[in-house]
User: Fold these one by one.
Assistant:
Number 1:
Amino acid sequence: MAEINSVTTLTMDGDVAVITLNSPPVNALSANVRDGLYEGFKQAIASDAKAIVLICEGRTFIAGADITEFGGAQRGASLFDVQNMMENSSKPVIAAIHGTALGGGLEVALCAHYRVAVPSARLGLPEVNLGLLPGAGGTQRLPRIAGVEKALEMMTSGRHAPAKEALEMGLVDEIVPEGQLREGAVAFARKAVAENKPLVKVRENNTKLEAARGHPEIFANFRKANARRFRGFLAPEYNIRCVEAAVNSGAFEEGLAVERKLFGELITGPQSAAQRYYFFAERQAQKIPDVPDDTPARPVKSVGIIGAGTMGGGIAMNFANAGIPVTIVEVKQEALDRGLKVIRGNYDRTAARGGFTPQQVDERMGLINGSLDMNGLADKDLIIEAVFERMDIKKDVFTKLDAICKPGAILATNTSGLNIDEIASVTKRPQDVIGLHFFSPANVMKLLEIVRADHTAKDVIATSMKLAKQIGKIAVLVGVCPGFVGNRMLAQRQREAQKLVLEGAMPWDVDRVLYDFGFPMGPFAMSDLAGLDIGWVKEKSKGETIRDVLCEMDRRGQKTGAGYYDYDENRNAKPSPVTEKIINDFIVKSGRNPRKVSDDEILERCIYPMINEGAKILDEGKAIRSSDIDVVWVNGYGWPVYRGGPMFYGDQLGPDKVLAKMQDFQAKMGDDFKPAPLLEKLVADGKKFADFKRQ
Ligand code: CAA
């Protein structure tokens, strides 16, 4: 065996040379890996070997470029040199794929003459999720092999295609049994030699491109069909342009030049910087300084949920989807039946769209069991309370749970902002109490705020973090404070949105500015969608707020055909003259003159106080790091990922600019804008939010 370098070896298996990469965790294409590949192929080609297999050790084939190297000076062999050497090898090169062949990893594999994979392998070009495009020929080779439509879909979604689908697309030539990748790839290599198989260069195959030439409607239709999904993002459009170039260029190199140019623009631009930051933010959020990765987790094989309402039902679906049996407890049969019917309806709708088979729906429903008896939760490993958001009701539930549940069971509350220490105080086991704050709709939204109370045990935190991953959530550990991280910051934005409207901005002005910033919708459109009457009590309403007046007029949002906006029969929103009059009457009544509020002011008034609140949250230790706050906002509140998150955005603007604006607003409008001490301190020290570490 020859050691090529610290991450690469070259061995002979009879007359087949095997180049093995071992660069944990994901064999990313660092300078060292590129050097190893370059030298390994050079030696293998010069050897007596008749064929060459490229394989990886560890959990995966090459998972892409090393993202940590982006932005630095190029060191070591270039990826293009490696690819050219592979493609031009006089001996068949076979890539042996397990785990994930992603981005640059797939681009390397596409320069092999053949690819074999195990059934569990997945292949994709996920660069779009980093605000990029595949910059090593992937945009030119994928459409050549998989066809234009498939390439567009894969590159703009970043989806990882399973091996079976990759085989159908021609991305993989043979699937070999699980656990026998090396033997399978070597056997394939021998067969290639014995049968004198051609040295296939994907770059030379133009058949599928020619089929698309002269059909610009393919691209126009694709753009149109996905306009909503791509809104605000640069990378999907740039990916499409590269495939267009592949189709319209005379030669591979011409398309490659377009790819190189557009890749250069993206990688130096702000969107990719934000999306790459976010990639690491999400992974960083899983690390809890005083709860090491090897903290033993408690087994969670059964779950109880109290409350079959919208939240309880949605939460139950998460566990059923992951194969964990759930018992939902309600007080009344009618409410239980209604809750179970809603769950079934949700599953049936997904099945009708092709998401599940009817059999999968039945399997999932089979894991959800309804009960009117809380005593049935005695043997459950985890119980999540999802009852009405009132402290007395929650305390009552926890008192009962404390009496019923087995020792060691985790008792969780889904409160969206109540004091969990107070809830835990009614039990004799506060160490087992934690907050699991799901976001509505709970079966869809990715975010899970895991709320650590004063006495929560470390293994309860470790178990919750692990479980979140198992049910497909992105967890962020936060501390107890009103509204936790997400809703606490949201309250700032909501307050300013309401104030802006009383100063002369119309709800649709505020919504438009936030929509253009990249949110899926503004706060008023959101209220109309959710229903203006949530928390509104008819008997107590005295027309004191705009919302009161709207509700009193039965303008309760989309469901009544009118709210802040007027809606047509297809629920398309139109600015409402009725709302405008109500607002103007309010302004007159308050003795003020409406003024023209600029779009800049709307944005700054809505966003800067959120950043300021984020600074307080950090300072109080309610979030571990500023990037955790960003993960909350991107996953739970639709903050556009191409702007990184509110704290990243604050850092990009410069904390000094945020502070100056807050001071300016404070002088004009009072202490809603009082700068957070941490913001002042960071500015005084010339630091950013990302630099903040609690002592
Ligand atoms: N570069 C550097 N580090 C990477 C990496 C990459 N491409 N991919 C993953 N890592 C790191 C993660 O940060 C993480 O590090 P820590 O343990 O220190 O947090 C570690 O590898 C494990 O990653 P995950 O926790 O994500 O592990 P997983 O098993 O859940 O997922 C994965 C594995 C599917 C490969 C996932 O990590 C992933 O999607 N990686 C990114 C893949 C990608 O985007 N590739 C394209 C890169 S851009 C490119 O290739 C451009 C080009 O055209 C040349």
Number 2:
Amino acid sequence: MKDTSQISGFYRLTTEERAATVSRLVALSRTEQDALESGGLELDRANRMIENVIGVYDLPLGVATNFLVNGVDYLIPMVIEEPSVVAGASYAAKLARAGGGFVTQSTPSEMIAQIQVLDLVDPWSARFALLNETGRLLEFADAVDPVVVGVGGGARDLEVHVISDSRVGPMLEVRLVYDCRDAMGANVLNTIAESLAPEIERISGGRVNLRIVSNLAERRLARARCVIPSEALTVDAFPGEAVVERILEAHAFALATPYRAATHNKGIMNGVDAVVVATGNDWRAIEAGAHAYAARQGRYSSLSQWEKNQHGHLVGTLEMPVAVGTVGGATRVHPTAKLALKILGVQSARELAEVIAAVGLAQNLAALRALATEGIQRGHMQLHARQVAIAAGAEGDEVDLLVQRMVKEKLVRADRANALLAELRESVAR
Ligand code: MEV
């Protein structure tokens, strides 16, 4: 555990100073510090992760500060290409800290495997037969991976749903619920689904087609809550109480239309994905699960809720599926992912999922606060201008000079950056 995640002026340090500060706080070894600098993933290891490898692809790894979750300080490693996300998370975590930090909870790490059964004459009788054998099927599932069962995981439930379909006739959807503890679970659930298939065919008299984990991990939820004192939300011309009201209006907008809900949730996923990627987890699975969960009532909506308490303070809650692991997959193969887990200091997949939910809620707050007051472009402009300047070919001091000029002119565009760079180089040559 870190003494604190409140590191004053962290953003003003050089990258080396930041790395040294984090290394000291979480006691990184020399090798781990080297991995931070180099990106960690060697070509040889990359070549063993996927097929047809020709190189490795780097992204920035930043650390968000100020996170207090269930009374514990966390430094949050975030891998992301988008400017303002790490700064936004750190700022929102500071606001949440003023109200006591984030409080989180999670359900057990229960994933669902789906087995599709077809060619059924009497699907309801097939369902009856399968449910009759639930105990034996769960025992069968438990025998597949004794390691997971040994650490307290295993099969929890079997559901059988009859689906009528005009194209392929009646189907059964067999859902096996399985607690995969600290694993993400896709591998173990897929293995179990494939192993169970012959047994399911025998009992149901049907034919099994698909056997695969579901990414709608509705039994593996993480929740986060924070209270933001209204006075902490004051921004220049906007008193805190007005900012609370404007954030509530923004939330109502996300509830009212999926066009806004998609962007609202995208802001949440900016934070969620950055930690998911940093820790070597499967961000496509998280994205699929989050959006399917957001649409579970038949209409796509906001994953977060914002309300005002009796003191007029802003209260945010987020609930979403977070199927992440701390063992298996890339989490232990990618050296920087291992490092990210060490920086976080989480002890279990559930703790990681809860911290991720807190980061998602923080990111949502940062976006709503900016959108409901000054707009996001002011904060974005500086960082965006940096990217535009670098893309135009600016180097060293040229970057800052171009950024200053473009921000002052409120004209951050590639053509302007090119022109300014040419001008600058010409004046230096003269
Ligand atoms: C940009 O990456 C994310 C936002 O659009 C989120 C939002 O609109 O809530 C700022």
